[in-house]
Design brief:
31% strand; alpha+beta; single chain; 9 helices; five-stranded antiparallel sheet; 12 strands; 40% helix; OB fold (Dihydrolipoamide Acetyltransferase, E2P)
């Protein structure tokens, strides 16, 4: 079976197959079913089931390409045109936020003057066309071969981006910072500031493997979120703990570790630990190296801790 590039490719093919199946079923109901018609219908249904199963198995991380529709409305938009300076600024802001998300998932240190080329290449967004409706454009990622469950996949990055844009409540913004390191938070604040100053609304639509996911961010929301994030301070540390790994889901990129004094850590899997999990025995005592990042609202003292499993080492190795 040929493998398609994106969730939209799969969904388009599935829609066409469904139409063909319904057409054949109508013909059968009207004229009766003979051996040839039965064989055609059987083949179409098998193809539909196989393709649906492949899409579910691969998931977003298994797609070689991601696609994202972005629509702008408001002051910078004039009919179906948009101010070029505004569009250039927002595209650059969006690209930098995505780069920061990929860097975060790969454990890249946050204070580097520039990101590694490998991060930039993986996170690159391409302009694929525009469409009518205020001003809309299609963005897509470069094709890439990925291992299922890769925490730095563009599927994970785009999902995190849409979830971040869905946060319209200031009180929920701290929880969303798990996908952004300190550099990423600064990049996101730059995007919020530019959107707030422009008076525009940004809408995004992502065809994921489980259906379309949408988000919208208005200029007024962007202003309030920027003000809240400007009050945030953060620090990060790495420490090793002795205990047992209670569970790890590679396809979701999450883990749970319990120390010998019954402290429980949950969070994301770091990229360096994926190979170590392949032959790991979960009930054995081990040493886990875990990085912890704490973000604090300096006004309300509201705080969050985010954990990432960096390394697993069996006792005695």
């Amino acid at each position: 079976m040929s493998r398609m590039m994106s969730a939209r490719d799969y969904q388009r093919e599935l829609s066409e197959l469904q139409s063909l199946i319904e057409h054949e079923e109508r013909l059968t109901a009207e004229y009766g079913q003979d051996a040839a018609a039965e064989a055609v219908l059987h083949s179409l249904r098998n193809r539909y089931e196989a393709l649906s199963g492949e899409l579910a198995r691969l998931g977003n991380d298994g797609m070689e390409k991601q696609e994202l529709s972005v629509v702008f409305e408001g002051r910078p938009v004039h009919g179906h045109t948009v101010d070029a300076s505004f569009l250039g600024t927002m595209l650059q802001d969006l690209q930098r936020v995505v780069e920061a998300m990929v860097a975060t998932s790969q454990g890249v240190f946050t204070r580097r003057s520039s990101l590694p080329r490998a991060v930039k290449n993986r996170a690159a967004l391409r302009f694929a066309g525009s469409f009518a409706g205020s001003f809309g454009m299609e963005l897509e990622t470069a094709e890439q071969e990925l291992e299922l469950g890769d925490p730095s996949s563009m599927g994970s990055a785009i999902k995190s981006l849409v979830q971040l844009l869905q946060v319209g409540d200031q009180d929920a913004i701290l929880d969303s910072l798990d996908a952004l390191n300190s550099r990423g938070r600064v990049r996101y604040m730059e995007m919020l500031s530019d959107l707030a100053k422009s008076g525009a609304t940004m809408r995004v639509d992502w065809p994921s493997t489980t259906g379309r996911v949408s988000a919208a961010l208005r200029a007024s929301q962007a202003k309030r979120l920027h003000e809240r994030l400007s009050r945030v301070s953060e620090k990060e540390w790495i420490k090793s703990y002795r205990g047992t790994l209670d569970g790890a889901l590679k396809n979701r990129g999450i883990f749970e570790f319990r120390t010998e004094d019954d402290q429980v850590f949950t969070g994301r899997l770091g990229p360096g630990v994926l190979d170590e999990l392949k032959n790991f025995h979960y009930e054995e005592t081990c040493i886990a190296t875990i990085s912890t990042r704490e973000v604090v609202d300096t006004v309300t003292q509201d705080r969050r801790e985010f954990h990432r499993l960096e390394r697993l080492q069996p006792i005695g190795s």
